[in-house]
Structure formats: structure tokens, C-alpha cells
Amino acid sequence: MNRVEARDKVTGRARYAYEYPAHGVAYAYPVQAPVASGVVRSVDASAALAMPGVLAVLSCTDPPEIGSGDDPELAILQTTQVVYRGQLVAAVVASTLENARAAGRAVRVDCVARQHDVRLRADHPGLYTPEKVNPNFPAVTEYGDIAAGLAAAAARVDTTYTTPVEHNNPIEPHAALAVWDPGGGLTVFDSTQGPSADRDTIAKVLGLAPDRVRVVSPHVGGGFGSKGTTRPHAILAAIAARAAGRPVKVALTRQQMFELTGYRTPTIQRLQLGADARGRLTAVVHDVVEQTAIRTEFAEQAAVCTRAMYASPAMRTTHRLARLNVPPPSWMRAPGECPGMYALESAMDELAEAAGIDPVEFRIMNEPRTEPDSGLPFSSRNLVGCLREGARRFGWADRDPRPGIRREGRWLAGTGVAASTYPARRRPSRATAEASGDGFIVRIAAADIGTGARTALTRIAAETLGAPAARVRVEMGDSALPQASLAGGSMGTASWGSAVVKACEALLKNGSSGSADTAEDVRADAAFARHAFGAQFAEVLVDSATGEVRVPRLLGVFAAGRIVDETLARSQFIGGMTMGLGMALMERTGVDEWEGAFTGKDLAQYHVATCADIQDVDAVWIEEDDPHLNPVGAKGIGEIGITGTAAAIGNAVYHATGRRVRDLPITPARLLR
Amino acid sequence: MRVTLTVNGSQRTADDVWEGESLLFVLRERLALPGSKNACEQGECGSCTVLLDDVPVCACLVAAGQAAHRRVVTVEGLAPRGELGPVQQAFLEAGAVQCGFCTPGLIVQVHDLLRRTAGAGLPPPGDADIREALAGNLCRCTGYEKILDAVRLAASRLPVMP
User: So what's the pLDDT on residue B160?
Assistant: First the structure.
């Protein structure tokens, strides 16, 4: 079947948050702090207020009333203390977007600057160990005798890898339209990955009962984590609408997104691995240093993937954070696994070479029987199958492991491999199903941010009901529908699908309608280690004169439970791998230490992979029938595609050139240095 | 100022246009045509691609006044009678649409590519030609593979010119 809403999208009819009409609408434009640390002494709005169409100026020197300051990032304009450059310090509300923007530039913010610190370094004096890492893992784990394992190793590596600040950059900039009704209720059209959670958060911040707030978001132009939590623009729209007495739209510019919508923390990761003469790991150490913000903590779980990957008699994983004058880092596609698997899988490649073992075989030799850290049985694990199938399809068997010896004209050629992994979880959700005319309506406050959730849930409902998909309509993207978990953590299909199957089964039993709540089912899920796995193979060509890297072939083989829709799944895997290619070769936000600022805040300077950067990218999968997951049998596919890609490409670049670049992205400058 | 232009075959007028306003702003905010998307406002992402006198442009980079008395075609104009155009149909069938925010710009760009090549009696564009032609239209979801499939599909369906 075709994507349910594709017709609306190809004709331009699909409405996104900013595009809803509202009578008498006004526009708010954020004014951001011009220093990375300091105090706002005054905000002079007189010039702005005299400009055409200006209705109000909100300022942190005259804090608007809110209900809860628990989340300092959402308690906007409540303090004159500035802790990062770009922090919201004022906003202009005006009759048109252009008037608001022009007046925003006329607001004079007088700041006393203080010394700032934006430089992450492995020896930062402020490094501390957080209580938990995202979402709720211990920051430190250790078992076995690390020192003995490393001492006994016949081959070992001790290397440090770094990843830069990376920005999600969904194509749709974050936007919201807030409309207050005369009774004090609020409707927010928001670009969000989870209308239920967004409603609850907006209600709490504004001090409203959740049932007084409604969030509407039928179409969302990508998020990749950056729309997974409520962002300041939505709160600003609501507060500005209250102040102006009119509906208000806020549309962040691409530049504002860099400071106000989250990003992937930079990481410094030290890997110490040892292997015995037979190629068995003797010790694994994964120590991570990352940054977080002054007022909010986000601890990316970069070493958590290592706890699930390879058998070792001794293992330590740690996370430490530095609080810097930076915007709050947050979720970006596969937080944790994405940077973590880059480092682990690069180190595994280095150790395989040091041990003189083929990197595919080396991984297979270290396959664990149970999850190494927890000792739990795997619900299913087909990493070995993915590696073998990928090696067969890619033609790995003929590979000469020696680096830097394959020349095609001025191009150096090489191949590399890396493993992928992502956890398979689910969260409680509710759904209803109702017979209507000659068809069915399924309702759930799920979100389709481009994943194809609307289509996948239509298929799942149709299968359960034994009806053609054309007779099933799924309503989603509205917090007025039955409460659902958000589109994040690759949990959508598993979480929402569980509720949809159950609601449809209830309908079949009851006759005309059914409802479901999976809270009890999720609580009762048996103890298993549940993960999707995969293997990625990359072929690269490196221009020996310029250092340009091309990727003629990228192949991913995944084992992710049941695949609900082949077309959607293939595009999700390939989209993830392509973002991984961008991470490997081009994605990076600059940090200006003097100004305390992100630099290159647009798509001219923050490079994402374009059509012309890609050549042959393919994704296939191994069928998995895992009875320990959920009624759909799916593990989730939105994020695993980006894990391991950068390592596979980095390992191929080493194989091509003999140069091991351990800092992403692998740019020509770094290759030629 | 007043700007009069032809949009999707109809003459349209916008009043009180500020001299600095973009064509994209006029289309989205004044003429109720939000199909063309605003995602970077500086010509980097291609989401606002429209045809201006048959030439694809980023509407965010065209001043509204520059479009006066000229012909503009947006994604809304490629399916005028409630039917889908061949490129739209191919995007739908090939699964080339995900979040949909880059889609309108891509469809206009591909429409132009095929009009200049297969539609003009020339051979259909090869993969390298397609990738180059679409290099200014960023997509963050699909990895472009299904978009390539859609372009090949649309090209294969164009009538062969004698």
C-alpha cells in the first residue's frame, strides 16, 4: 500500500504547524542573549514598540507569569541570568512576521558579560559523574578484573575518539501556533513528536490542568529527537498569545534552531580493549566525556551500547559530564548508540587488525551468549547472521586486509565493516477502535514525523481486523485522542502497535468498538535483553590529492524483528545510514571559544548529505520471529540505521589510506594533515 | 507596493507588499499557498522551489517585486484538476515521501528536470544527472534512494517523442 498521507504531501495540501489559519493572528520573534554568560541589565524596547505593527515586547526583566519553573529551559524569560549564548531573553509580538522580525532586531539588550567556558576537554576540572544517563541507566558499570584482562592480552588498543556537536536539522523548522479560547483553554498547533507529552508539559509550565490544553500536530516535518520534548518556541507562542490577546505564531529560523532545539553533545571517548591469542576479548573499557548545560543536565548514554555488544570477562563503562555555557544538548537520532557505536566499532576494527584477525570474524568470535553486563538472555540476537549475510552480499571474502595498497588512478580504495545495535523497547499507550459505516476508525495520539507511522498502524489495524487497509482510517497527531507515548527511541510501532492490536481485538470481541491500555502489559513484560542488531559494510574511494572521500557502496543488513511495511522500512534504514554517512564525513557545528558561540548555523555551513553525496546505499534485513517483544513482533527501525555507519566508513577510510582519523567528521583537512 | 503576477495560471494581486518581501512570503502568507515550504530562507535547502517563467528558483531568494508580471508555478499548480501530475504520482508510488517537507520543492525540481530531458525528446536522465539536478534539494529522511526510484519511474512513463 502507498503511504496514507502521501497524496496530501505531494500536492502541497498537508498542513504543518505554522500553516494553520487563525483569525487575527500575530507573530512572535525571539530575541536571544548576545553573550554566553552574564546578566541582562536592561532590555530597551522603546524603539521596537514604535515600529509598525508591534503589539508587545516580552522581556526577562519583566518576567511573564508561568506555572512551573521545574524545567529551566521552558521557564522562558524568568531570569536575567544568562548561561548560554542564544538563550531567550525577550520577544517581540507584531502583526506580521516581517514586522516582528524587524522589531526584534531593534530591541536593545544590555548585558554584563562574565567569563564563559564552552570548551569540552578530557581534563576539564569540572567533570562529574551524573546519577543516571539517558533515559535511566547507571552512569558507571564494572565487572571482572580489568587490569588483569588488559595485562594478559596478546593484542590491545588504547585509543580516543571524538565526535563534534551535531544538529538534528529536520527540514521543517520548529513552529507553533497558540490559540486561547475565551474560557481560558489553550490549543497549540505544534511541531512535536508526541502530542500527549507535549500537552502535559505545556500545561505544567503554564500552570493549567492538562485537560485545558490541546496539542494538534497531524503532520510533522521530521524531528530526529529535536521535537521529542517541548521546546521554548511552543511556550513562547502561548505566553505571547496571552499577552497580545490574539492567536500567535512562532516559527524559528534555521539559525535559531541551533540554540533553541537541542543537539547531540560532543563526546571524547577512550576505548581500551584487549584480546588473547585466539582473538577472545580479555577486557573492555569505554570511558566517555561529554558536555551538558549549566541549568539542565542531559547525559548521553554513549557507553551503554558497549554493555550489550561483546563477551568479555571484564568490562567497565563510565560517563562524565562538564557543565559548560552551552545550549542544552538533547536527543538526536540514536542518542548514546550513535556516538558510542562509532567509538566501539572503530576500536574493534583497530583491535582486529592488531590481532591479525578479519574484522567480521573477530566480531563473530566475541559473540556473547547472554547480555554481557546484565546476564539477561537475549529475546533474539542475530548479529552473526547480519555479519555473514552482509559479508556474502558485499563480497567481503576476497578482501585483502592490508591498508593503503589499492589505487585506482588517483583514488585509494578500501572497505570497512561495523556492527549496529539499538534497544527494542515499548511504552504504555492507549487506543480505541470503532466500526463506522463500512469501515473502521482507530484513534491514538501517536505522531507521524515522517516515519510512516500512520501507514504502519493502518496496516496493523487492518490485519488485526481482517479488513482491507482502505477501509481503516487511523486518526493521530492530536492530544485529544487516546494518550500515547511519543515518537522516539524507535518505540512507536511497538508501543502504539500494541495498543492498536489490543483495541482492534477488543472491537472484534465486543462488536462495534474496543479500547485498550497497555500499561499493565508493558509492566508485565518478562526480563529479556531486547535489541535490534545489524551490520554495515562500506566501500570508499579517497582522492589522494585532495582528501575527498566518496562512498560508492554502503550496505546495511539488519535484524529488527518483524518488518511491518517493506517500503517504509527500507527508507527508514537507508535514511538512517545516510545520516550516518553525513556524520562520518561532514556533519559538525563549530564552536567559537572566544565568543562562546556555535558557528556555521545554517545549511550552507552545516552540511548534511545531499543527493549528489550518495551513490549506492542499500538496506536489507533478516526475518526475525521474536515472541518476547510485543503483539506486533517489531523491534523498531528508526534509529538503528545510523548506528555503526560512521565506524564502517572510518574503517574503510583507514583500509583505503592507512590513515586512522579518530575525530569526526573525516574531512579532507584531517586526512591530509 | 502592489504586486501582480500569474500563479498557477491565475492572475493574482498582493497589496501592501514590503519591498524586502520574498516571493515565498507572498505565496505563503498573502496568497494562501503554503505548499512551497520555508526551511532555510537563504537558498540552501530547495524546499521552496517554484518555477518562475519555467525556470526553477528558490522562492525565498526572489524578491516579490522581481516576480511582478511573471508566471509562477508552485506544487499546487502541478495537480490542477484534483488529479496527480506524473511526478507526484511517481513519488507516491515509489515511496519517495516521508515527512513531506522537502517534497513540494523536489517535485517542482523533478518536474523541470524531466521537462528539459525526456519531455523534450532527449534521453531520460541518468542517475548522475538526477543526483546533480537534485543536489540543491535537501532531504533528511529518505537517504534519497526512493526519490531516485521516483524520478526513474516518472521518466519511464513519459511518452516517447518521435
Answer: 57
Domain boundary among B20, B54, B76: B76
Contact A170 B99 (CB under 8 A): yes
Q: What is the C-alpha separation between A504 and A486, in angstroms, rounded? A: 21
| A339 and A478 part of one domain | no
Judged by a CB distance cut-off of 8 A, whether residue B37 touches chain A is: yes
Structural domain count, chain B: 2
pLDDT at B120: 87
Residue A122 resides in a domain: no
Whether B49 contacts chain A with CB within 8 A: no
Domain CATH code at residue A477: 3.30.365.10
Answer yes or no: do A542 and A665 share one domain.
yes
Is residue A68 situated within a structural domain? yes
Whether A109 and A230 map to the same domain: the answer is: yes
Let me know whether B129 and B108 are in one domain: yes
Are residues A405 and A509 part of one domain?
Answer: no
Strands A248-251 and A175-180: antiparallel
Beta-carbon contacts of residue B14 (< 8 Å; ≥ 6 apart): B2, B3, B26, B30, B31, B64
Which residues in chain B have Cβ-Cβ distances shorter than 8 Å to A173?
38-39
CB atoms within 10 A of CB B86: 17
Q: Are residues B72 and B93 in the same domain?
A: no
In order of A45, A77, A83, the CA distances from A62 in angstroms are 12, 8, 18
CA distance A54 to A100: 7
Contact B99 A98 (CB under 8 A): no
- A476 and A445 Cβ atoms separated by less than 8 Å: yes
Q: Min CA distance, A570 vs chain B (Å)?
A: 9
- Residue A385: phi and psi, rounded to 5, are -60, -40
- The answer to whether residue B124 is domain-embedded is yes
Which pTM does this prediction carry?
0.98
Q: For chain A, say whether B81 makes contact (Cβ under 8 Å).
A: no
Q: Do B99 and A172 touch (CB under 8 A)?
A: yes
Nearest residue of B to residue A256, measured between CA atoms:
B40
Please list the pLDDT of chain B residue by residue as tens digits (162 residues): 999 999 999 999 999 999 999 999 999 999 999 999 999 999 999 999 999 999 999 999 999 999 999 999 999 999 878 799 999 999 999 999 999 999 999 999 999 999 999 888 889 999 999 999 999 999 999 999 999 999 999 999 987 544
User: Measured between CB atoms, which of B32, B107, B143 is closest to A574?
Assistant: B143
Q: Which domain holds residue B116?
A: 86-160
Q: Which of B145, B146, B153 to mutate to test the interface with A (most CBs of A within 10 A)?
A: B145
Cα–Cα distance for residue pair A512/A435, rounded to 1 Å: 5
Active site residue A639: yes
For the CA atoms of A411, A341, A401, A386, the dihedral, rounded to the nearest 10 degrees, stands at: -110
Q: Which residues lie across from A285 on neighbouring strands?
A: A272, A316
Main-chain dihedrals φ then ψ at residue B58, nearest 5 degrees: -80, 115
- Is the Cβ pair A574, B21 closer than 8 Å? no
Nearest Cα to A403, choosing from A471, A366, A350, A467?
Answer: A350
Same structural domain for residues A156 and A20? no
Query: Which domain covers residue A400, as residue numbers?
Result: 132-166+264-424+530-672
How many separate domains does chain A show?
A: 3
Cell, residue A601:
548555523
Question: Which of B76, B102, B129 lies at the terminal end of a domain, its last residue?
Answer: B76
* Rounded alpha-carbon distances, angstroms, from residue A108 to A33, A42, A103, B90: 11, 8, 10, 51
Pick from B74, B98, B135: which is nearest to A12 by CB? B74
Span A348-373, average pLDDT: 98
- Cα separation, A106 vs A100, in Å, equals 10
Residues linked to residue A443 through DSSP beta bridges, in sequence order: A432, A475
| Model pLDDT for residues A361-379, shown as the tens digit of each residue | 999 999 999 999 999 999 9
Q: Are A240 and A64 in contact (CB under 8 A)?
A: no
